Request: fold
Amino acid sequence: MPDVVFFGGVIPKPRQQAAMQALEDAEALVVVGSSLVVFSGFRFCKLASQSNKPILIINRGKTRADDLATVKIDQDCAEVLAYWVESLS
Reply:
């Protein structure tokens, strides 16, 4: 079995705690390629917003956290990330 959480699956508690700690330590939250329909992902946006951390969302189409986003890029995430990588080199 791969080390992933499938849609509808439960995130293991240690992984969830590590992600919460990473968000707490972070200066901002970047969401790439997710509609955030599932609460397990959306909760990070809610927590970042409550902590007044900027939220950048890169996703084609509407997401559940659009109203929380500091910046929303409504484009193909692969193209946006490729552009960023290219601009850094």
About this structure: The CA atoms of residues 34 and 45 lie 12 Å apart. The domain at 15-88 is CATH 3.40.50.1220 (Rossmann fold). The chain has a mean pLDDT of 93.
